[in-house]
Amino acid sequence: FRASIDQRYRDNALDGALRESELFNKLDEEELQRVAESVLFETYGSFDWNVSYKKLRSSGKAGSQHEPAITRQGDYPDGLLMVRAGFARVSVKLGTGERTLTYLGAGNYYGFTELFYAWRDGESRTLGTSLTALGYVDILRVPTHVLETYVFPKVDTPPPLLSDLSKGRSLSDDSAMEWAVEERFIN
């Protein structure tokens, strides 16, 4: 069933999703087709996430440590992650916990800047942030070699690193967002 849904998305909507992204809108038809053929579909979390979340919440054990990890700070990126559906938390380590920098929803992407600098500078880079599923998230993964071939040569200025989002912001500046994410109001 899952494979059938993914194939229908690939046949009917993937091309449009890629065209809408600022990262791929400079590609010609053939290049866009090559990118689309290489995209991988991934799912993190559970579609009925709210049931397990309510149980954890009532037991007092809810928290980011129970969110399914998509990537962890310090990992090596192996492709661009684009959120197809659901929400994901971008965070950095802070003491024994995590500090939420932002969250990503449908159409947002993760890992582009680290991959771009690794390609441009010719050296490995690790991720400066973690990405976890808030309940349930569908991801489109564009492999690094595809970006290096079709996308990076057309980039003038990459977007800033997500880890830079915390610079100049105090913890209290982020407290409302942290609370909304923890309570799953964004879902």
List its traits.
alpha+beta, 26% strand, 187 residues, six-stranded antiparallel beta sheet
How does this model look, in words?
By secondary structure, this protein is of the alpha+beta class. The protein has seven helices and six strands; from the N terminus they run αααβαββββαβαα. Strands 1, 2, 3, 4, 5 and 6 form a six-stranded antiparallel sheet that branches. The longest helix is centred in the N-terminal third of the chain and has 11 residues, at 2-12.
Quick recap:
The model is unreliable at 49-53 (pLDDT under 50). Helix content is 35%, strand content 26%. It is α+β, with helices and mostly antiparallel strands and 187 residues long.
Quick check: average pLDDT? 82
Uncertain segments: 49-53
- The number of distinct helices, counting runs of at least 4 residues, comes to 7
Radius of gyration: 17 Å
Taken as a percent bin, the fraction of beta residues is: 25-35%
- What's the main sheet like? 6 strands, antiparallel
- The total of beta strands comes to 6
| Helix/strand class | alpha+beta
Helix content: 25-40%
Sequence of secondary-structure elements: HHHEHEEEEHEHH
Task: Kindly report how far apart the N and C termini lie.
Answer: 24 Å
Overall form:
globular
Blueprint (SSEs and pairs):
Layout: H1 2-12, H2 14-20, H3 29-38, E1 40-45, H4 49-59, E2 69-71, E3 79-94, E4 97-104, E5 109-110, H5 112-121, E6 130-143, H6 144-151, H7 175-182
